[in-house]
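Input.
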Amino acid sequence: MYSEQIRTIEHPAFPALWEAYQTAFPPGEQRSVSGQIKALAAPGYHLDAWFEDDNSLIGLMGWWDFAPFRFVEHYAIV
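Output.
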């Protein structure tokens, strides 16, 4: 198992991550793709993806670093 920070929607794992995100959260708790692009550009926002050794997505977490604390906004296990 390993993780990667997703910094743009051009990341090869983004389509699978986005599908998992849309499945895991109700529409009222989701961003649009344009909203996600803005979040990814924001200082302090992180979108992490976890993968099995075969590169299959197993989880995601969107979180904010608001020093001295961190806020987890979205967390899902696939």
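The first helix runs from residue 14 to 24.
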